[in-house]
Design a protein that fits this description.
heterodimer; A: 202 residues; alpha/beta; eight-stranded mixed beta sheet; B: 387 residues; Rossmann fold; Rna Polymerase Sigma Factor, Chain: A; two-stranded antiparallel sheet; 14 strands; globular
Chain lengths: 202, 387
């Protein structure tokens, strides 16, 4: 599937055949549809935008209009094989609470996020003295939905604090390629544009 | 044969529909512990059943609705109550689907109810008609479908009390329901909703013409009480914002208030009109019976208090729709059903439509709702190979 966003393709690769999957912040359902078609998953979604939910429903997907910050408490524990949170954690009000719920609901949690420690972001702030705007994060500081941006190292620390253990960590580069990384290492936190983590509860 | 009607038809060109009649060998067992026999269920169909019998969609009507979902009402001559949703090329497309809608048991548009003649006495049932429940309504519809030779439904849908029937269908007959689309409803009637219903019932029973429910025998009707019941209920179908937008404090007479109790405000005239037109088409005892059926509805109670148990193992695909300004069946109640379905590992989508039109939004022109319904039905039909 050539049009699949690189971080979604990397997440898809982590999902076992026939898994029960919950995609939190599933957007228009592209990943869920892909996983249903290629991995025969039993997929569910949660999405904030009504237009996106309609798009999902028309695709035949099972998606609940709702808010990750408030609704995840309703889900029973350990009912999904994998819970996905792609490019969403930085937009939640309570990232630690959300991540805690994901680790509880799913046996595995796959998270993709933009890396605010990328050298271009650092350089941007250093040279211009203004809040960085990049290709991946194209908002002004005052209108951005990304209210809780973090670096790869920040997220690795949060994952531990929320009771998670990192099983796999991938660095996502600007050309869309991924490579395994050590989340605590110095270089991916500077060089990677984003990251994909596979976590499980400790 | 056609259904019987309470009053002479004022819209003689309107299609009167059909009625299925069941004799003592097919008595209807009711939750109240009584059986009904013989009994009648009046219904309308739209579109054509395909050869494989896989394109049937059942529409369940709300408290004051009836089987005339997509064609002129035979008493009022007005368009069907859901013509924006059901019809050729509409989201529930009668060019593709065979749509069935039946008057509920206890109703007053040809199905057995308190206004119909009790064959044992030759007189109207009145209050001797047994109390019915939402589950009884659904049981009766299932027997109608047996009669029509329809084993499985591509979709069951409806709003408000219609949505309650949808949930009951999914719980009682999961193997017959491929998909279910409950709109603006709840798995139980709330204390506030029961309270509003009781106000309506007391208004009817306080009318001297109600005569203990036996008004038909004296050719009377508790019109005033029924109109007040309708007026009070109608407020609950709207929203503060919608009332403000439509009427505000606008006066009937721009010259000023009358310093009397005749309607001064437009919102008063509007409610009076709602009350007056309602009594021409609805039976007061039916109103008592059907509001009671809604009050008794508590799906979880039938399953040990755990709503998820009502849907355990269900293969039905659900799509639940609520409206932001609906305070009668608010989003939180609709979402409770969605969460129970999730807990039961059922396949469920949930959409909340942004609107200020309150509970009645499900009957109105709401493009996002139409988009949801169309998208859901298309994907269900595609999954079943229905053209």
């Amino acid at each position: 599937m050539a049009t699949m966003r690189p971080d979604l393709a990397a997440i898809a690769e982590m999902i076992p055949e026939g898994a029960r999957v919950l995609d939190v912040g599933c957007g228009d359902g592209a990943l869920l549809e892909y996983l249903t078609a290629t991995k025969k998953v039993d997929g569910r979604g949660v999405e904030l935008s009504q237009q996106n939910v309609n798009a999902c429903v028309a695709r035949g997907l099972a998606v609940i209009q709702g808010d990750a910050d408030t609704d995840l408490g309703e889900y029973p524990s350990q009912v999904f094989d994998v819970v996905i949170l792609s490019q969403t954690i930085q937009a939640t009000r309570n990232p630690k609470g959300v991540l805690g719920h994901l680790l509880r609901i799913g046996r595995r949690t796959a998270v993709s996020l933009p890396n605010f420690g990328h050298w271009r972001v650092r350089l941007n702030l250093l040279m211009r003295g203004r809040m960085p705007r990049t290709k991946a994060l194209g908002y002004e500081w005052y209108d951005t939905p990304n209210i809780h941006l973090c670096t790869i190292a920040d997220f690795a620390a949060l994952a531990k604090e929320a009771g998670g253990e990192i099983e796999r960590a991938l660095a996502l580069s600007e050309d869309g390629s991924t490579r395994p990384m050590r989340a605590e290492a110095w270089s991916p936190n500077v060089l990677a544009e984003g990251a994909i983590f596979l976590l499980r509860a400790r | 044969m056609g259904p019987k009607f309470l009053r002479p038809l004022s819209a003689p060109d309107a299609e009167k529909g059909r009625a299925a009649q069941f004799g003592p060998e097919h008595a209807l067992a009711l939750d109240a512990g009584r059986t009904l026999a013989p009994w009648t269920i009046a219904y309308m169909t739209y579109g054509a059943l395909n050869e494989a019998r896989t394109n049937a969609v059942l529409v369940c009507h709300a408290l004051t609705g009836d089987q005339f979902v997509a064609s002129a009402h035979p008493v009022t001559g007005k368009p069907g109550w859901w013509e924006t949703m059901v019809g050729p090329g509409k989201p529930i497309d009668t060019d593709r689907f065979f749509v069935i809608c039946a008057n509920v048991i206890g109703g007053c548009m040809g199905s057995s109810g308190p206004a119909e003649i009790d064959p044992e006495t030759g007189e109207p049932y009145g209050l001797s008609f047994p109390l019915v429940t939402v589950r009884d309504m659904v049981r009766a519809q299932a027997m109608l479908l047996d009669e029509l030779g329809i084993e499985r439904l591509l979709c069951v849908t409806g709003g408000s009390m219609g949505g309650m029937q949808v949930l009951q269908w999914a719980a009682s007959y999961p193997e017959r329901v491929i998909s279910a689309m409950p709109i603006a409803c709840a798995a139980k009637h709330s204390a506030q909703n029961i309270a509003f219903h009781e106000v309506g019932r007391q208004a009817i029973m306080a009318d001297p013409d109600w005569l203990g429910g036996a008004y038909q025998l004296q050719d009377k009707q508790p019109s005033k009480g029924l109109a007040v019941a309708r007026m009070a209920a109608h407020i609950t179908y709207l929203s503060e914002a919608a009332l403000q937008r439509k009427f505000g404090r606008t006066l009937q007479n721009p010259g000023g208030v009358s310093f009397a109790f005749a309607p001064d405000f437009q919102v008063e005239s509007y409610l009076h009109h709602q009350g007056m037109t309602f009594v021409d088409r609805f039976d007061a005892n039916s109103y008592l019976y059907i509001t009671r059926a809604m009050d008794y509805f508590d799906l979880a109670a039938d399953y040990g208090g755990v709503l998820a148990e009502a849907f355990r193992g269900s293969k039905t695909r659900f799509c639940i729709i609520s409206f932001t300004s609906d305070w009668l069946f608010p989003t939180v109640e609709n979402k409770r059903v969605a969460h129970a379905l999730n807990a039961a590992a059922a396949t469920v989508s949930f959409v909340e439509i942004e609107t200020d039109r309150g509970h009645d939004a499900f009957l109105l022109d709401e493009p996002q709702m139409f988009a949801t319904v169309r998208g859901f039905l298309n994907s269900v039909a595609a999954g079943q190979g229905v053209a």
